[in-house]
Every structure is written in C-alpha cells, then in structure tokens.
Amino acid sequence: MSAAVEHAAKPAAEAAPVATAPKAGVHPLHDKWVLYYNGPSKDKSANWEDLVKRVMTFDTVEDFWGLFNNIPRVEDLANQSDYNLFRDPIFPAWEHPDNREGGKWLLAVSGGDIQGLSRMWLDSCLFAIGEQFEDTKEICGVVVSVRPRGHKLCLWTRSALDEEKTVALGKAWKEALGLGPESKIKYQIHSSSVQSQRSFPKGEAYSL
After folding, report:
1. Half-sphere exposure of 28 (CA within 13 A, CB side)
2. 133-137 long-range Cβ contacts below 8 angstroms, 24+ apart
3. Rounded to an integer, what distance in angstroms lies between the CA atom of residue 115 and that of residue 120?
4. Distance of CA 184 to the CA centre of its chain
5. CA–CA dist 23, 32 (Å, integer)
C-alpha cells in the first residue's frame, strides 16, 4: 500500500470529486474508483443489476477515507449484502468487457469472524487503490459478501489465463491480508468460454 494511502488524514465524507486540479495537501489516486452496494431484496424477481446501487465515486486518498468512515461497517451489514469497490468505469458483473476474460481470487471467511472480515475488507481496498502491484491495472475491483453460512472476500482480476500475473497478484493480495500458509485462496474464472480454453479443475483455476 502506498504511504499516501496509509498515512493520509481521514476527513469527513464529502461529495464525489470533480475532475479539477488537486488542491494542496490532497493525495490523488491513479484512477477513479466507485463503491457499489447491494443488499437483500424481498422481490425475488428483481434483476440483480437493478439492486446494485452506486454509493460514491472518488479519486483521492482523502475522499476514500471520508467515504469509508461514513458508511456502515461490514459487521453492521445485513445478510445477503455486498460492498463492491471497482475501478471506474468497471461494473461489478462478469459480463462487463473488462471482466469477461478475468476471474476472481476468493477467500472464504467463517461466519463467526465478522471482525476479521471487516479488517480484511479495508486491507483489500487499500491494496487495490494503493497501486503498489507491478501490474496494477490487472485489478478490476474487490468485493465483500456477508452471508449467513460463511462470508466471502474476492479480488477481481482482468486476465484469467495469464497464470504468471494472476498468481503473482494472488500472492501479493494474500500477503497484504496477513494470511499464513494455512489460509487458502482459490481462483475462479468468470466465463465458461474462457474456462474451456485451458484444462482447469472444475470450480477453480489456481489455488494458493
């Protein structure tokens, strides 16, 4: 994670940033990022994409902290809720052009470890926006999913079939989360058409 992201002050939330020259003392990010939220719905016929709501767009460290400090914490979310933090203009659906050839690293988290999930969600956000990975554009976004039978934390990447980049990114993410060798993450490819191009085990392409 960059020093700017780690040490910047954490001001109150404000409106989404406008594309103007950064003010003195502001730490701009390399890209704009968008936080999306989707929660439980009583309408079982509702289209999933219609349930995904854009919360805020930001492109500075200060706006990130302003947002993060003023939204409900992961441990306060209802079951069947997701936070999705994605590089603008990528939408958190595998059908989006930037996601079609990619996949996601997935960490399963015990339902009883909601505090650990909350910490790792923040660490994942900082890992994504901090631009410290060599092939940082490979990161599309990060997702945290609160579920009654076990939570999920995912890192979405762009190029599933580039094993070297994908595995290196998975290792870097795992290190950023402070996970030891006993904690396993697995990589799932979004598209069956991409999956069919290589002889991968069913359900996962790589594991660390």
Report:
1. 11
2. 133/168, 133/169, 133/172, 134/168, 135/165, 135/168, 135/169, 136/30
3. 9
4. 18
5. 16
Radius of gyration of the chain (CA): 17
Question: Which token pair is 68?
Answer: 């993060």
Query: What are residue 28's phi and psi, to 5 degrees?
Result: -70, 145
Q: How far is CA 34 from the centre of its chain?
A: 10
CATH architecture of the domain 3-207 equals: 2-Layer Sandwich (3.30)
Cis amide prior to 89 (ω within 30 degrees): yes
- Long-range contact set of residues 164-168: C-beta below 8 Å, sequence gap at least 24: 165/135, 165/138, 166/103, 166/138, 166/205, 166/206, 167/206, 167/208, 168/133, 168/134, 168/135
What b/e readout covers 145-179, taking b as 16+ CB neighbours within 10 angstroms? bbeeeebbbbbbbbbbbbeebbbebbebbbebbee
Q: For residue 84, is pLDDT > 70?
A: yes
Q: What is the pTM of this model?
A: 0.84
For residue 50, the tally of other CB atoms under 10 A from its CB is: 10
Which pLDDT tens digit goes with each residue over 66-75?
999 999 999 9
d(CA 71, CA 122): 12
Query: Quick one: 204 exposed, middle or buried, by C-beta within 10 A (0-12, 13-18, 19+)?
Result: middle
CA distance 95 to 79: 25
Strands of the sheet containing 186-189, edge to edge, are 53-60, 28-38, 81-87, 139-146, 151-157, 103-109, 186-189, 206-207
